[in-house]
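SEQUENCE-TO-STRUCTURE ENTRY
===========================
What this section holds: a protein sequence and its matching fold, both as plain text.
Question of interest: how does this chain fold, as expressed in backbone structure tokens?
***
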Amino acid sequence: MNSPRTTLYRDKHNGKIMGVCAGIADYTGVNVFWVRLVALALAFGMGWPIFAYFIAGFILNKKPPYLYRDESEKKYWQGVRQSPRRTAREIRAAFRDVDRRLAAVEAHYVSSNPRLTAEIERLR
């Protein structure tokens, strides 16, 4: 089962007609203006996207009102949806950086505290 944050919704709150374009924009992180512009161009160029829009409007669930806590969480989940592997790499890199910084703090604290160094050596 998909997480609620990785599901495509129609965004009626930010939408104009049924919220399908606003939902696609929220899902992809693309500005809603460009999504609407492409939808209009496709609708006038081909015709069938109008039917697809209304079908999506009836099939997609309405976006939950409190899906994200803040804008940074929204951007994070848009990144996950766009490229899960890249997001996982970024998270691993952040954890490696935190680990490196903690090791530096530990080394500094232990090296400046001879009692702690002696206690650590005694435990080995």
Summary: The chain is about 70% helix and 0% strand. Residues 84-111 form the longest helix (28 residues).
